[in-house]
Specification:
2 domains; Glutaredoxin; alpha+beta; four-stranded mixed β-sheet; 157 residues; 4 strands
């Protein structure tokens, strides 16, 4: 199956491209738009991004594989990321990690059988002053306890 951007998304990419001095600078915006459209970033999607921006595929690959917000395989409807970097770790992140894993019955980079949840352990999400934290899709939850994490997950089930 070949990936092609919708006309609407091509217009969004063009608008994003105009914000930057080079096409390469627009790669993050374009990858995000592609992930919204396709759900994840496959090899075909990376090739189309490179074609649309007129850049090397390796530039797209380097962005996709560096940032945790981009996924190279399908994820769940609710993608849960648990930060376990130093600040979060010192404030109980591994207890939260274990709680989420047990509640969802999946491990790192796995998806529940019903496709509703996926789980990822991440290094740093830039909320060190509010540790420990998790994100669910685009929403950050900070200063967490095991009980608060349980409430968040229950609200999604």
């Amino acid at each position: 199956m070949t990936f092609k951007f919708t006309e609407e998304n091509l217009a969004r990419i063009d608008k994003a491209r105009k914000k930057y001095p080079t096409a390469l600078a627009a790669v993050m915006d374009t990858v995000y738009i592609a992930q919204e459209q396709n759900g994840y970033i496959s090899t075909e999607v990376m090739e189309e991004i490179a074609n649309v921006l007129g850049i090397d595929k390796v530039n797209v690959l380097s962005v996709v594989t560096f940032y945790t917000m981009y996924h190279t395989k399908p994820m769940g409807k609710y993608h849960v990321q648990v930060c376990t970097n130093v600040s979060c770790m010192l404030r109980g992140a591994y207890e939260l990690w274990d709680r989420v894993k047990n509640k969802l019955g999946i491990d790192n980079m796995q998806v529940t059988a019903d496709g509703k949840f996926s789980l990822e352990e991440v290094e740093c999400m830039g909320a060190c002053g509010y540790a420990p934290m998790i994100s669910v899709n685009e929403d950050y939850y900070e200063n967490l306890t095991k009980e608060k994490v349980e409430e968040i997950l229950e609200s999604l089930i």
